Amino acid sequence: xxxxxxxxxxxxxxxxxxxxxxxxxxxxxxxxxxxxxxxxxxxxxxxxxxxxxxxxxxxxxxxxxxxxxxxxxxxxxxxxxxxxxxxxxxxxxxxxxxxxxxxxxxxxxxxxxxxxxxxxxxxxxxxxxxxxxxxxxxxxxxxxxxxxxxxxxxxxxxxxxxxxxxxxxxxxxxxxxxxxxxxxxxxxxxxxxxxxxxxxxxxxxxxxx
Length: 209
Description:
By secondary structure, this protein is an alpha/beta fold. It has a single domain (27-207), classed as Vaccinia Virus protein VP39 (Rossmann fold, 3-Layer(aba) Sandwich). Helices cover 25% and strands 24% of the residues. Strands 3-2-1-4-5-7-6 form a seven-stranded mixed beta sheet, sandwiched between helices. Helix 4 links the parallel strand 4 (113-119) and strand 5 (141-152).
């Protein structure tokens, strides 16, 4: 459900013009349930308060948070994915929000959250976009708020000339050095439909001080 702070194509040019094409068929990261890493965080009680999922896709993590009784919002630039997310929410009777919004412009949401989730968004950002994202992330996180991120790591082999950036620990540390406190960077796995072994990833936890 788009709100007054979301942006449509008329006033927010989308440089990722082919993003919707990724959802023409089911993409490999749409596994039909939350990523196990985030499900473990939810079960541990680490995800709390008002939750924002950046790059929410078809909404599995937003709906996971709703199941926990949390107030949850998802943002994405892929209109096809958001339509699927809203359909899921309606069928499940979940009171959640899905906004068409650029994650590099989080400040423009005009809201603050206790937890921000990022399953595979940050590793899509080019280096020149990362500062805008991290600045906005700090703005939307309340003091003491947590950011949990799952991203491709440099341990994942590259199979083509394009695709998500493979990030080193130093890449992550440098990108967030001026915005959030890094609590942990741990090896993890992103589950996908194409390979039972999944994707080698980093699970990163940060706090706004």
